[in-house]
Amino acid sequence: MPRTNRVPKVQLRSTRWSTAAACVCAVLLSACSTDTDTNTDTSGRDGYRGRMLQPPREKVDFTLQDTQGAAFDFSEQTEGHVTLLFFGYTHCPDVCPIHMANIAAVLKDFSFELRQQFKVIFVTTDPERDTPQRMRLWLDNFDPAFIGLWGDHDEVNEIAVSLGLPPSVISQSEDGEYAVGHSAHVMVFTKDNLSHILYPFGTRQADWAHDLPGLASETWGE
Amino acid sequence: MMKRAHNVSLSWVVLAAVVAGCTPDSQQATTTDIEVSGVYVTEPAMGERAAMYFTVVNRTGSEDELISVATPVAEVAEMHKTVQQGGTVRMEPVGSLTLPANGELRFSPGGYHVMLLQLNEDFAPGDWVDATLHFRVAGDIAIRGEVMKYVEIEKALTDAQ
């Protein structure tokens, strides 16, 4: 199968260089105060409300099981989409469901055409309790189109770490219950298959609504 | 960077204050100086568990301690803290919490919450849930909070992170 997700290092470098150059231009233009066009390639870059990643992070090749039990090839099946990737668990009290609910609420208001450009992927960090079936039921509370992925604990941690996210940690409590520590961030990949931006817990619907349409057409100055 | 609202939904505070005001305080004279507001409960995820939040304001000059929480809707009500550290988030049980003199104790998503486990009854957004907060000095304070959809919860997110 063709592998188009790996962005060559050369292109990465040129992205950064052209962005730097564009920033300089933007500064010069605004200094002239004759430029009324605020919709330049780079103006959006500073306008996003997430946390910018410098340098951006590449997608990682992995295949996990989806909620129908089918193999989901992350790189291949997210190609051409803006992909929102989150590691969490269904017993999570607030961070996970609030992230999912907020994203779902915003996507719901998008036109069909815009909505189709996004994929939301929830990878469980609690493979013991989160069966694919359970994940499906949980995700359906937010958006039936959300994708749930399942893999064993070590496998999922390896993926998280290679994406630059913290691994999950299971902590047992005395009553036999346990909690799962996981990344608080939603990682967003744009159509260039790079993640330039992370969204922490506390990101509001207004922030998602502000950023997501722009990310769908973002070219990062290319 | 994100902007965070500094006013926690005013209507909730007013509403909860009204409910708290309905609590007969004859047996607990001291509780009039401790006000619990902004009480709300998440919709039960998968019908199994829910989280409860509120803000306790202490108008007295002496500190108190929130020892435990009980509610008829759940067998177990545990106080937990969500700890955010270096991009990770994890949950830790807490034994009891100090309510500072002339200070407040806030339960909110991403911070403290009361985890309601082993639910005794079904509840849904729009329902009201009763609970009792046990304080070491002030004794019991009855509270009531509305069940909210997860999508509504962000209105109550703290500005602290």
Report on this structure.
The complex is a heterodimer of chains A (222) and B (161). Chain A is α+β, with helices and mostly antiparallel strands. Chain A is 38% helix and 24% strand. Chain A has helices at residues 9-32, 43-47, 74-78, 95-108, 112-115, 132-140, 153-162, 205-217, and strands spanning 51-58, 63-66, 71-73, 82-88, 118-124, 147-150, 169-172, 178-183, 186-189, 194-199. The longest helix of chain A has 24 residues, at 9-32. Residues 1-44 of chain A have low confidence and may be disordered. In chain B, strand 1 and strand 2 form a beta hairpin. With 161 residues, chain B is mainly beta. The longest helix of chain B has 13 residues, at 10-22. In chain B, strands 1, 2, 3, 4, 5, 6, 7, 8, 9 and 10 form a ten-stranded mixed sheet that branches. Classes of the chains: A alpha+beta (222), B mainly beta (161). Strand 8 of chain A pairs antiparallel with strand 5 of chain B.
